[in-house]
Amino acid sequence: MTPKLRIDRTEATPLQDQLAARIRAAVAAGHLAPGARLPSARSLAAQLGVARGTVDAAYARLGGEGYLVTRGPAGTVVAPALRIGASPASRDRPAVTPPVASPVAPPWPRVLPFRMGLPALDLFPRALWARLVARAARRIGGAGLTYPDPAGLPALREAIAAYLAVARGVACGPGQVIVTAGYQGALALLARVLLRPGEAVWCEEPGYPLARQALAAAGARLLPLPVDAEGMAVPDAAAPARLAVVTPAHQAPTGVALSLPRRQALLDWAARRDAFVIEDDYDAEFHYVGPRLPALKALDAGDRVILAGSFSKTLFPGLRLGYLVAPAALAAALARASLLLAHGAPGLEQAAVAAFLAEGHFARHLKRMRGAYAARRAALSGAVAAAFGRSLALTAGPGGLHLLARCPEGTPAGWDTGAVARAEAAGLGPGALSAQFLGPARAQGLLLGFTNIADTEAAALAAALRRAVG
Questions:
Q1: Cα 396 to Cα 281: distance, rounded to the nearest angstrom
Q2: 174 Cβ partners below 8 Å, 6+ apart?
Q3: What is the pLDDT along the chain (470 residues), one digit of tens a residue?
Q4: How far does the chain reach from its first CA to its final CA, in angstroms?
Q5: Phi and psi for 288 in degrees, rounded to 5?
Q6: I need a surface site. Which of 2, 156, 198, 356 has the fewest CB within 10 A?
Q7: What values do phi and psi take at 336, rounded to 5?
Q8: For residue 277, what is the enclosing H or E element?
């Protein structure tokens, strides 16, 4: 018999989180045995007085964690492979060993279906990573316990330079690589060295909000340039600016690639104006359709491009490690600034990442991720098209980690932000395209991350999103 499941509307915890927690607890206590059938989503939603999308999302989430299995017409059951190790006399102790550790732990940002900016946490090789970290800890000597090199661990800088030469066509020496605290740390470093208060910075419109906010906080004057099917439009009569910040591989958030003529125009502008281009290479590793253009830095004969990379999308964001590939003339100044701002990144994590790259694990991990992402993207594309029909126009760029579902012309202003709020109330995490504009929004749509949605969950979650947004 299925235990009585309850939710508390006075709690701050979202309803979907409460329901998932109640089911986990029932399994752990032995009230839901392996193979036990749960009520249908419609039935449980009626019993609890919640939206069916809330139950669908909770079931899909628990399926991804390994607690539940969906068997089509046969319904949803507790995974038969779960091992329940507690006897009735010891039910106050943790009782369940799920086959896959839950990727959901931190309170912020919560890992909700469709959430952008996160890699597939269920695909990260945790056991291998644990071994590499443990090995690095055992090998640490006295020098490793002092302050780290502000430019980064030499072994990691060498590994990054070697990887970029093969994967992105970027010829650079380890001395040009500066290890940073993720992309935001890289921006803070560059702003410290290159910008004076009030200087202009070109940015994409729409674009990545956190990057613009970081630059504005450093005193930059932001000049948004429109993005079309070829990427950021470079003005013919270029307005003076000190920096341009672009995402050329897959523009954030539209997904388009910066065309070769636009790349050349940007490089020509930087050379004429004695300016620099920050190339945000945040997800270039994940390209699925057609040939991939080389990094902008690989075309940079004038040494005006600063490539910014991060391990947040390729490994995991909690690592907080990124890197810059700087023009040779800037490397020493950036290393000095790193000394003043943070005195380097933690050495233990750097050593583990260096081994991950040098021993070939990184290349194998990326290959596995690309295959899984291509399948997850295809599954979610089909599911969203089936759920929304012509009410949203789905576009998928040549690569990246999310889909863009555009609203048709004439959609009332603010629809996408309202839809996002309704979706979050149902335990889902899409983004709003209109929120990515610095000025007045010229378009609306939903940004749908697919990395943490398994193929088997796509249809149910797309249907739950359709019901949630109305």
A1: 18
A2: 154, 157, 158, 160, 161
A3: 566 777 777 776 778 888 888 888 888 777 888 888 888 888 888 888 888 878 888 887 787 677 888 776 778 888 887 765 433 333 333 333 333 333 333 444 557 899 998 999 989 999 999 999 999 999 988 888 888 899 999 999 999 999 999 999 999 999 999 999 999 999 999 999 999 999 999 999 999 999 999 999 999 999 999 999 999 999 876 668 999 999 999 999 999 999 999 999 999 999 999 999 999 999 999 999 888 888 999 999 999 999 999 999 999 999 999 999 999 999 999 999 999 888 888 999 999 999 999 999 999 999 999 999 999 999 999 999 999 999 999 987 889 999 999 999 889 999 999 999 999 999 999 999 999 999 999 999 999 999 999 999 999 999 999 999 98
A4: 34
A5: -120, -25
A6: 198
A7: -65, -40
A8: strand 276-280
pTM of full prediction above 0.85: no
**Cα→Cα distances 65→74, 111, 121, Å:** 20, 12, 11
Which two structure tokens, joined as six digits, stand for 86? Answer: 């507690």
Write the DSSP string, 39-82.
PPHHHHHHHHTS-HHHHHHHHHHHHHHTSEEE-GGG-EEE-TT-
Omega before residue 327 within 30° of 0, cis: no
Residue in 449, 464, 447, 451 with CA at minimum distance from that of residue 406: 447
Q: How far is residue 470's CA from residue 465's CA, in Å, rounded to a whole number?
A: 8
Tokens standing for 378?
């295809």
Q: In angstroms, rounded to a whole number, what is the distance separating the alpha carbons of residues 335 and 73?
A: 61
291: tokens are 């040939």
Q: How far apart are CA 110 and CA 449, in angstroms?
A: 13
Query: In whole angstroms, what is the distance from residue 249 CA to residue 245 CA?
Result: 13
